[in-house]
Design goal:
Blueprint: E1 17-21, E2 24-28, E3 40-42, E4 46-53, E5 55-59, E6 65-69, E7 73-76, E8 83-85, E9 92-99, H1 104-113, H2 122-130, E10 134-136, H3 139-142, H4 146-150, E11 163-165
Parallel strand pairs: 9-11
Antiparallel strand pairs: 1-2, 3-10, 4-7, 4-9, 5-6, 5-8
Helix pairs in contact: 1-2
Domain Cupin type-2: 35-97
Organism: Vermiconidia calcicola
InterPro entries: Cupin_2 (IPR013096), QDO-like (IPR053146), RmlC-like_jellyroll (IPR014710), RmlC_Cupin_sf (IPR011051)
Length: 166
């Protein structure tokens, strides 16, 4: 068998491709926010989250939630309905991976569909998901507490939480 020649990918701490998706900045450290995506599941890739600051709340079916704090690691297997939010006052940051890495292009598409500095349009987000084998799940099926997930909903920014990518 011939030895593969796939190179390693080194991205120094101050480099990497960056772009805006709504109100969050994404830095791609390897091809392979306020984000709060609508509930969904992935048909073709796994996803992992390493919380590096604050607490992220992961939402699963039947209203199940898991609060992942700094240092906690969450894996989301293929076909596992989920979403996440930050219902806390402290900003949350995380390191996120996708296997296989083609899903990075989903975020690049979101950057083109959205307006920098503004929350992502949920319908545009759902359309983008469809291109990357990600299937939406209705809020009522997830039994998501909308106030907890989406903030107070009055548009004044009070009660809204921050979630940021690594």
């Amino acid at each position: 068998m011939e030895t593969p020649t796939v190179p390693i990918n080194f991205v120094p701490a101050t480099s990497g491709e960056t772009f805006k998706v709504g109100t969050i900045t994404i830095r791609i450290m390897e091809d392979g926010s306020r984000t709060e995506p609508p509930p969904h599941w992935h048909e073709m890739h796994d996803e992992t989250f390493l919380v590096t600051q604050g607490t992220l709340r992961f939402h699963a079916l039947n209203g199940q939630t898991v609060d992942a704090k700094q240092g906690d690691y969450v894996t989301v297997p293929t076909r596992s309905p989920h979403t996440f939010s930050n219902p806390y006052d402290e900003e949350a940051k995380f390191f996120n991976t996708y296997t296989p890495a083609f899903y990075i292009n989903y975020f690049k598409l979101l950057a083109k569909l959205g307006e920098e500095g503004k929350p992502m349009n949920p319908e545009a987000n759902r359309r983008a998901m469809a291109y990357f084998a990600t299937i939406g799940v209705a809020d009522d099926e997830m039994k998501v507490d909308k106030k907890q997930f989406y903030g107070d909903g009055d548009g004044d920014g009070e009660g809204e939480k921050k979630v940021g990518g690594a």
